[in-house]
Amino acid sequence: GVLGSLIIAVSVAVFIVRLNGENNSKVLQEQRESIAEYRVELELIHDLLSKVQQEMNETKWNFEVQKPITFELLGKMQQDIQTQRKEIANDREKVSKWQAEFQTSSKTIENETSNILKDVLQVIPANRKLLEQSIESLQQDMKKCQEAIADNRAKQELNSKLIEDMSQVLIELKSELSTQRDEASNNRNENLQQMQQVKSDHEQMRSILNMHPGPYRSCKDVHRKSSGKYHIRGKDVFDTFVAYCELDKDGGGWMVIQHRFDGSLSFDRNWTDYRNGFGEVDGEHWLGLERIHQFTKGQDCELRIEMKDFYNNSKYAKYSSFAIGSESEQYNLTTVGEYRGTAGDSLKYHEGMKFSTPDRDNDNAESNCAKSYQGGWWFYNCYRAFLNGLYRNVNDRPEKSIYWNSFSGDWRGLSYSRVLIRPLN
Fold first, then answer.
1. N or C: which end of the chain has fewer CB within 10 A?
2. What is the pTM of this model?
């Protein structure tokens, strides 16, 4: 009965503790655990007493024998119970103390919470107003952003359309540009051809305008004192042709039949070219064997040869008579008169010789001199004078060049030669 009362008291205490400490589980958790331990011990004691009672019932016949022991055990148990009661009383006192402290703390927390809640409730309206204003401002900003996004999207779509249109235009422009470039290239070629034709026509016109009236029987009949191109018709036995008349040097009246000065014109030509002539009469040229023959066969003519080397030394050779035969006679050098001048006489060696070209060998040498030295001339075996040679600045005998043996006594090539004829009468 005492043990049951003790258990009930402990249970009531626990219930009270639960009621008072329901909201402070953390503070009372340790006490709960301690009381639970006490309950376990009490239950163990109760079990022990039950066992003892059972044993006492079972051994009642031996009670007298066991009585001292039983009393001793009961005394010991009463002492233990008394000790447990004291401990429970102490714990109850502690629980009461903790409960009072908990109530005080709860009251303080409740007051502080109330104050905080009041402050919060006072701040909420102002903050709410600010929040509403912020939300309204954000909504306005969002609306503006949406409008800007819509505007930008429209602009982007417009730009995309413009870019697409511009791309198409660019493709068309590229195609048109390519077409125009091709047309320009074709027009350029046509313009170049037209310009070349105009230039050629202009040069021909200028050539015509630069020629003085004529025709004249010879340059000696030109009474003007301006050297240049003139129409010459000889003795009315051959067609009129254009020749360059030198009207200043040595009394004037000279007709140029050969001129070399820069090597721009090749004199390595065939028989037909030498017969008909080649080059421009106001530049490097050969007048033509047939014209020279026609001009010299009907009148006595004199010959003048002007020469210069690459060291700028100038000399001349002049002959009192000069004439060549017809084509049937291979344009042989029929007459070379008396020499006078500063270059020495190297032409007399060739008098009487037929004219030779690389394709027509009329010389007295075993080899073809014209082919070997690459030019036409009145070769003998092969030459002492050769004014139609290669234009080269050389000094050795094996080299091919414009040559006049007595000019310097060596084998130097000449840089300039001009052959002129003039009627004696």
1. N
2. 0.53
